[in-house]
Design a protein that fits this description.
Largest interface: A-B, 81 and 81 residues
Protein name (chains A, B): Transcriptional regulator
Structural class of chain A: alpha+beta
Low-confidence stretches of chain A: none
Keywords (chains A, B): DNA-binding, Transcription, Transcription regulation
CATH topology of chain A: Arc Repressor Mutant, subunit A
Distance between the termini of chain A: 32 Å
Order of helices and strands of chain A: HHHHEEHHEE
CATH architecture of chain A: Orthogonal Bundle
Organism (chains A, B): Streptomyces inhibens
Radius of gyration of chain A: 18 Å
Shape of chain A: globular
Strand order of the largest sheet of chain A: 1-2
Oligomer: homodimer
CATH superfamily of chain A: Winged helix-like DNA-binding domain superfamily/Winged helix DNA-binding domain
Number of domains of chain A: 1
Number of helices of chain A: 6
GO molecular function, one term (chains A, B): DNA binding
Pfam families (chains A, B): HxlR (PF01638)
DNA sequence: CTTTTTGGTAGCATGTTGCAACCGTCGTGA
DNA sequence: TCACGACGGTTGCAACATGCTACCAAAAAG
């Protein structure tokens, strides 16, 4: 169980997000949840993580409101873990990590799993950071205002 | 020093990204780099991380091609850590985490640091996951093809 | 009713982190 | 030019987290 929080009191939203997710295993659990995993055993087989670690991570994610534990959809007495709206809102994070990985860690032609538009079966468009008026922004085009209300 | 890799051999780009970044400290280092930090001491003061941990993380990030060590811009004999193109490509990841944090971990009106368009001073548009033909996609509108060439 | 699967717990060895102390080099002011 | 503080680390150690294996109760399957 994670008791200590490291970044939770930060005024930086990135730090709070990082703290809420917990660790990398948790992020891969969320990825698997997006890919359709729901049951303890599915996550465990998919990730190869130790069961006690998985137990702890699932608990943290449920406590953090990213997943929720619901009765199994097939009518069995077991429970399933599904993404809450807050968890589904992590979609751009997962997509961003996926695209970064595709572009930087695979040789041309090297096979990898691929996220596609269900309707068309095509790859997704690369994420773009846009200004309020729709201009494409690079890192250098932005700056951080240290503190700001709302 | 991180010797063992956990996800590096995965065919999933998300896993490789996660492995390449290393841990949450590394991601916050990258965030600070986007915010203008360059020097060891800047990262250390900003993050409050132990110096040996910071040393190790900076080394990992340099080894992974996310940061590079360059001579200090002010002409001193010290070195600075700056984002490589690969590192700058993490921009959407940081922005996605920031927006998720803003939307889920701050009470309305609670102050937080804010990323703005330098030219206009306005907040950024929320990231959108788009299909190849420009439709806005929710998680349910997508599916993962387990393995695929290029 | 027996066996297998599921979803965990418990204990222990090992790895990683955080803290504090130390240290050589660099910059700076007198 | 020389002393002193800042910078950028390294080292050792204690505490904590992780991963592995064994175990276990409830549920499902047969």
């Amino acid at each position: 169980m994670v008791t200590r929080t490291r970044f939770d009191d930060s005024e930086c939203p990135v730090a709070r997000s990082v703290d809420a997710i917990g660790d990398w295993w948790s992020l891969l659990i969320v990825r698997d949840a997006f890919d359709g995993s729901r049951r303890f055993g599915e996550f465990q087989r998919s990730l190869g993580v130790a069961k006690n670690i998985l137990t702890a991570r699932l608990r943290t994610l449920v406590a953090g409101g990213v997943l929720e534990s619901v009765p199994a959809s097939d009518g069995s007495a077991y429970r399933e873990y599904v993404l809450t709206p807050k968890g589904k809102a992590l979609f751009p994070v997962i997509v961003a990590l996926r695209q970064w990985g595709e572009q930087n860690f695979f040789a041309p032609g090297e096979p990898h799993s691929q996220l596609v538009d269900r309707q068309q079966g095509h790859r997704l468009r690369a994420l773009e950071v846009l200004s309020a008026d729709g201009r494409r922004l690079n890192p250098d085009d932005t700056t951080v205002h240290k503190i700001s209300t709302q």
